[in-house]
Design brief:
Elements lengths: L18 H31 L5 H5 L5 H7 L3 H6 L2 E3 L11 H9 L4 E3 L8 H13 L12 E4 L1 E3 L2 E2 L10 H7 L1 H17 L4 E2 L10 H4 L8 H17 L3 E7 L15 E2 L3 H8 L1 H8 L4 E4 L3 E2 L11 H11 L5 E4 L13 H11 L4 E2 L4 H17 L4 H21 L5
Parallel strand pairs: 1-2, 1-12, 2-3, 3-6, 6-7, 7-9, 8-10, 9-11
Antiparallel strand pairs: 4-5
Helix pairs in contact: 3-16, 7-8, 8-10, 10-12, 14-15
Length: about 400
């Protein structure tokens, strides 16, 4: 085959450069290669530092202190941190041995106080200091107990010398400023007494039994929503844990769930537009806890709200976006009279997605639930990750309250 002619335009001709230019070109190529190599090395080192090229690893959130603590607990301690116990048959100011032992073993994570335990700020402060001084196991030693009470005002007021004296209905009539002050003043008084969670405000709308008791801010959704936001904002400024109750709204109930079953047959659209509205505003205002109702809402479930995943996980968690701590109403209330197995009830409440189980009647019921749920967890009837998540939320709240809500005097 003949070679291409000298003037063929497709033949690249090699032009010889002077020696100086050739040396300079080689140096430029060497520098360029070195820079590119350095850049590639830095990229590789950064990838290694960030966990390599695994997108899932790189995107994984860092484990929080509360999650690490929950991961270090035994099954008994994990379940225990979801149990709130009363001690209603004790002498005023006294802690029964069974409660002391349960706290030491990690079988309970908090207590609820009633007027019979201590009815003044000073007496409650003495009692709560003794409660918090009880040694707790392992990593729980540095986490305060939850200490809860109902200080709504009016007829539901456990500390006689702490605000608010006015009922929620009277507060609501006074306007937003009055309600916000009631929230803040009650928080300051309760924190001074060593109580770190107020089971208030009542966010229910309607003209049922709870309104007749003077426990609601009003009978229309807009008024109750504004007042709920105001109370929540004031109470959080006072440092206490705030609880909006009773989701998805108990205002329509014509019977008292503390005494008997209540069934609400209102449609889902009305419940969402009216009854759930104050809870939405409470969530927006930063409420720490939401209490689930013991009533039945036929639009959502044939079972009480507290045992309904559709209400707890669907309406509250998913639709309203609540990320705080969920808590049951009293699981020894009349709404559950005749329940053959309190242990089964406790399991159903946990499976519905409720973080904290509240017992307002007896220590025995609370400890029986603690033992039963521990067995359920070990047997795989409860998901370990779900229990850990509930405890993580509770521990994170307790840790924060240890900084913002401290006894004084």
């Amino acid at each position: 085959m003949s070679s291409a002619p000298p003037d063929d335009p497709f033949v690249r001709r090699r032009v010889r450069r002077p020696p100086g230019e050739e040396l300079a070109a080689r140096r430029r190529r060497a520098v360029l290669i070195g820079v590119v190599g350095l850049v590639l090395l830095l990229v590789v080192l950064r990838a290694v530092a960030c966990g390599g090229d695994d997108d899932e690893t790189a995107a994984a959130p860092r484990e929080t202190a509360a999650e690490r603590l929950a991961g270090s607990l035994s099954a008994t301690q994990l379940v225990g941190q979801t149990i709130i116990t009363p001690f209603r048959n004790a002498a005023p100011g006294q802690i029964p041995p069974a409660v002391r032992s349960a706290i030491r073993a990690g079988r309970v994570g908090g207590v609820i106080l009633f007027a019979e335990n201590a009815s003044t700020v000073a007496a409650t402060r003495r009692l709560t200091r003794r409660l918090q001084s009880i040694t707790r196991p392992g990593a729980l030693a540095g986490v305060p107990l939850l200490v809860l009470t109902d200080q709504e005002g009016g007829q539901v007021r456990r500390l006689s010398d702490a605000p608010p004296t006015a009922s929620a209905t009277v507060q609501g009539r006074g306007g937003i400023g009055v309600v916000q002050k009631a929230g803040q003043d009650s928080a300051l008084a309760l924190c001074s007494a060593g109580v770190n969670v107020n089971l208030a405000p009542v966010a229910d709308v309607g003209t049922g039994v709870i309104q007749q008791q003077g426990r609601t801010f009003g009978t229309d959704a807009a008024t109750v929503a504004r007042s709920t936001r105001a109370f929540t904002t004031g109470a959080r400024r006072g440092g206490i844990g705030v609880t909006a109750k009773h989701f998805p709204g108990l205002g329509r109930a014509q019977s008292d769930t503390d005494q008997t079953r209540a069934r609400i047959t209102t449609g889902a659209e009305a419940l969402r537009a009216q009854d759930e509205l104050p809870f939405r505003t409470a969530i927006e205002a930063g409420t720490d806890l939401v209490m689930l109702s013991n009533a039945i809402y036929t639009a959502f479930s044939p079972a009480p709200a507290v045992v309904s995943p559709q209400i707890v996980l669907g309406e509250l968690r998913s639709r309203l976006g609540f990320r705080g701590v969920t808590i049951s109403d009293d699981l020894e209330a009349g709404a559950f009279a005749g329940v053959s197995s309190p242990r089964q009830l406790a399991r159903t409440v946990k499976l519905a997605g409720v973080d904290l189980l509240l017992y307002g009647g007896t220590t025995d019921a609370a400890l029986a639930a603690s033992r039963g749920l521990t067995s359920d967890l070990r047997a795989g009837r409860l998901k370990l990750d779900d229990v850990k998540a509930a405890v993580s939320r509770s521990v994170a709240l307790r840790t924060r309250l240890g900084r913002t809500c401290r006894p004084t005097g």
